[in-house]
Description:
Chain A is α/β, with parallel strands linked by helices. Chain A is built from 6 helices and 13 strands.
Amino acid sequence: MVAVTVAQLPLVVGQREHNLSLAAEAVLAAPRGIVVLPELLNSGYCFRDREESLSLAEPLDGPSVRALTELAARSGSTLVASLAILPAEAPARGEGGVPAPTSAPRRQLLNVAVVIEADGIIGSYTKVHLWGREPEHFLEGTEPPAMVASQFGRLALMVCYDLEFPEFTRLAALAGADLVVAPVNWPLEPRPEGSRAREQIVVEAAARQNRVAFAVCDRTGAERLDEEVGSDWVGGSLIVGQDGFALTPTAYGRPALLSAEVELEASRDKALGPFNDVIKDRRPEVYGF
Amino acid sequence: MVAVTVAQLPLVVGQREHNLSLAAEAVLAAPRGIVVLPELLNSGYCFRDREESLSLAEPLDGPSVRALTELAARSGSTLVASLAILPAEAPARGEGGVPAPTSAPRRQLLNVAVVIEADGIIGSYTKVHLWGREPEHFLEGTEPPAMVASQFGRLALMVCYDLEFPEFTRLAALAGADLVVAPVNWPLEPRPEGSRAREQIVVEAAARQNRVAFAVCDRTGAERLDEEVGSDWVGGSLIVGQDGFALTPTAYGRPALLSAEVELEASRDKALGPFNDVIKDRRPEVYGF
């Protein structure tokens, strides 16, 4: 059994130091194990324009990764987050080659999920399916979910809207994931009273259909609600077992540190009842792929 | 808007006349529209052996299809059910060529879902993913979900365990389904108190991920619980809109006629919010298929 924690934090757009200190507090309060932090932990989400998003991004060897590495060393945990990252070849703001202020910066950021242990990054993945206005800021990834051999088991790494594509969660299971880890920012939409958010049931269904555990970390802290780019968030962080049932209570719309003991090895057994197997029972020759 | 009904009936194994009369009562009580009936409507489910299942099957032009055709004519509705069917080339029981009583009959039945209107069968589909002991009785289908042009819209036809494969529900959406119709027999398993059955949330997730409506008809009436082959049932029939929210209340473990007005045309709009499209946002070049 491994202690898995999702840290639903009230991030603030543009406040990197604040966001990193929230992360530090959460990681040090969580039991040693796997700790998943929200999407775009360093920058927040609701950028006014490309100039702003560019100003909030940093290189992959920048201060956020350094801070998370120190935190992984201090806690002994394996940390997961996504960050607004400047590609290595892109000029940092203010350095030579930066676009003149009058020309809009090209979209050139990456939404990169990282897995970090005491010695630094052990795996990374760039978000493939972009949501909403993200294409104004981010280049999309071109690789399937990263498989990362962590100290606690094999993690498949994806980000937010990626989860909505059953092709993607299936790829993670076929690649042998013990746990799918996903930082998310789920925008709040109205839903019938008493219903779980649909983003959550998509994750629960994927866990059942693939017999793989999930740890999904959402955020709270409405951003710029009085502006067109603004959003509030579901606050739907959850950890789900291989049977598709959540192992954590809901904490809609508030900060929360949700932990569960997860039997990661159970993700290697794909049996569904005494006669069936959710992977072997697939019929690729009928699907045509 | 089309009236869609799922008729959760207390079928009895081996009692075809009884089962067909339950179906008749339900279809005539339902509003005119699309009426989905449970899986293996004619035979029931928990067969003791292959001899019994063979004895309960019938040709595709047999009494059950004739009865359902008369019922479609009388009601004006489009009917959906699955039936235990003898393939055309297989000898009917008692006719020439039937295996000698001492040799076990070959598995040779088909679990065929049919769509029936006033003039008879307008589409059929043989279950592809077999559950539990079904391979002892049934040959598996080799074709993807049938697409059937009914009087009310384009129906994609699948059966029970087929729903657990996201590849299959995706194929139905890509083929342009307005409504996925699925007769099922969901075996009852323990679940945490207050939780929806996982079979239901798999359907809700597929509806959201594909922006397509679903009508899934389960059954009630525990069969042979004192025998190894016996089972009770979830009674989880539901109709789900394109947003992944159920349009019908739950009726676990009891007979029920559940109807909802469904806007089938909305299944042709794959937009999710102002910027996204659940089909166009797929990245097949990343998936590798």
